[in-house]
Write a structure and sequence with these properties.
Rossmann fold; Arc Repressor Mutant, subunit A; 5-stranded parallel beta sheet; 8 helices; binds calcium ion
Length: 233
């Protein structure tokens, strides 16, 4: 059973209680719940939780500001953050991901989704910690990439990729399951063969998927937000 410590930041008492109840039932520990951003920042430093569930719509300091502060403070920047958002807050989700949030859940959500997302983020963080930083050879299911030779193959068939296509695919595949916004992708691959724009990312993805044929679905479109490489089973 999991004993990770989750901090909940949610101003609506009934939702906060529901989340807490479900986390405890799932075997997580919930050392502290916060109703506003100020106490969230304080408690994050005091309790050093393994993960923070952060509602974006908070009275006073909003969730995005909380996220920015958490990710700017060396004491808290490594704590994964999952944003709790409304469906209508797509642009906030994009900003939050760019500020360093690790994932988001749109309200209303089921207890199943909640715990599945928490486990997924914790797994990804753990996998990332185990991956050597200088890993040049990347294997994700049928996809093999070598950053030194700049070679990519799918199911044993060599892929003929442009420089930008290679970089985008490598960036996504390096962190399977992670959602990247267009602007994050631009920042990661900028200025290799030509200046990449957010719109150009969409065009590159179309080209990539075409070249990947039946495996094109490995790159998943996250509507209104960006793209991700499908998490390995
Ligand atoms: Ca709220």
């Amino acid at each position: 059973m999991s004993r990770e410590r989750i901090m909940v930041v949610e101003d609506e008492e009934s939702i906060q209680e529901l989340i807490r109840y479900n986390l405890l039932r799932e075997g997580f520990l919930v050392p502290v719940c916060c109703e506003n951003g100020e106490s969230a920042l304080e408690n994050a430093v005091t309790y050093k939780p393994d993960l923070i569930l952060l509602d974006l719509m908070l009275p006073g300091m909003d969730g995005l500001t909380v996220c920015r502060n958490l990710k700017n403070d060396p004491a808290t920047r490594r704590i994964p953050v999952i944003m709790l958002t409304a469906k209508s807050e797509e642009s906030d989700i994009v900003i939050g991901l760019e500020l360093g949030a690790d994932d988001y859940i749109t309200k209303p959500f089921s207890p199943k989704i909640l715990t599945a997302r928490i486990h997924a983020v914790l797994r990804r963080i753990a996998a990332l910690a185990e991956t050597p930083a200088d890993e040049k050879e990347l294997v994700r299911g049928p996809l093999h990439m070598n950053a030194v030779r700049r070679a990519a193959s799918l199911d044993g068939h060599e892929l003929d990729l442009t420089c930008s296509e290679f970089n985008i695919l490598y960036h996504l595949a390096k962190r399977p399951g992670w959602v990247f916004t267009r602007s994050q992708i631009v920042n990661a691959v900028r200025g290799d063969d030509y200046p990449v724009t957010e719109r150009a990312v969409d065009v590159q993805i179309v080209g990539l998927r075409r070249k990947m044929g039946g495996f094109g679905e490995l790159i998943e479109t996250v509507r209104g937000i960006g793209y991700r490489f499908t998490q390995e089973p």
